[in-house]
Amino acid sequence: MERTYHILVVDDHAEIRDLLKRFLSQHGFTVSVAVDGNEMDKLLAHSPFDLIILDLMLPGRDGITLCKELRVGSNIPIIMLTALGEDIDRIIGLEVGADDYIAKPFNPRELLARIKSVLRRHFAIPNVTEQISAVERYHFAGWTLNAITRDLVNPDGILITLTSTEFELLLAFLTHPNVVLKREDLLKLVQGRGADVYDRAVDTLISRLRKKIEANPKAPKLIKTIWGGGYQFSCEVSHD
Fold it and tell me: Tens of pLDDT along 52-80?
């Protein structure tokens, strides 16, 4: 990596904090640690961070609560640590805006790979954009997505915050309008996801995106579910 990324580890287990600080520092990262949400808030108030590793089970405000709070106006990448690795934990984490998740106990090298993947997605133009680099802005149903700056503006001119995963998912649909995309197709288009991403995770990400761009997420008109087929972006898309 050309630049040094600053990572914040939020975990109430001293062993995990110490392990990750040593391991990630050895791999070129600047690492700060916090034991809970209060310490996290203090660090965020004084230092910019490039990524947060957030434990699900924390004293006081848990990881889900903290993730929700962070997602109010912030698209900072978040990787959640789940104690049991159960599907429900992963889905809840994705629903509230986490970019990825990894179950405890984990191999530090796997976490390192996840971190690099999330940082690439967040700070670099994704593959699908590189393939159509001449296109800067996409227009659909009164919305505008700038593929270079990643700014999404709604029909009222209001800027809508997208996480890196939400941006790539929307871009995948905009570059394939009126095409039925299966879950595996979407996983290929949304680069960098871990090998254990599963169908329900895709559904959760779709649900997240619908809440941001659909007038009625429960009766979506833009991202339609094709039963037995996948999803289809059912809207005319123009670009310049």
Answer: 999 998 999 999 999 989 988 788 999 99
Residue 107, CA distances (Å) to 16, 17, 35, 193 in order: 12, 14, 21, 17
Is 151 a member of any domain? yes
**Which residues are CB-neighbours of 163 under 8 A, at least 6 positions away?**
71, 75, 77, 97, 99
* Alpha-carbon span 42 to 132, nearest angstrom: 41
Residues 55 and 143 in one domain: no
Residue 189 lies in domain: 127-239
Q: Which residues share a beta bridge with 82?
A: 103
Q: How confident is the model at residue 232 (pLDDT cuts 50, 70, 90)?
A: very high
Q: Whole-model pTM? A: 0.68
Rounded (5°) CA angle 85-165-84: 5
What is the tens place of the pLDDT at every residue in 129-153? Answer: 444 445 689 999 999 999 888 889 9
One domain, residues 15 and 113: yes
Query: Has residue 1 been placed in a domain?
Result: no
Are 203 and 182 in contact by the 8 Å Cβ rule? The answer is: no
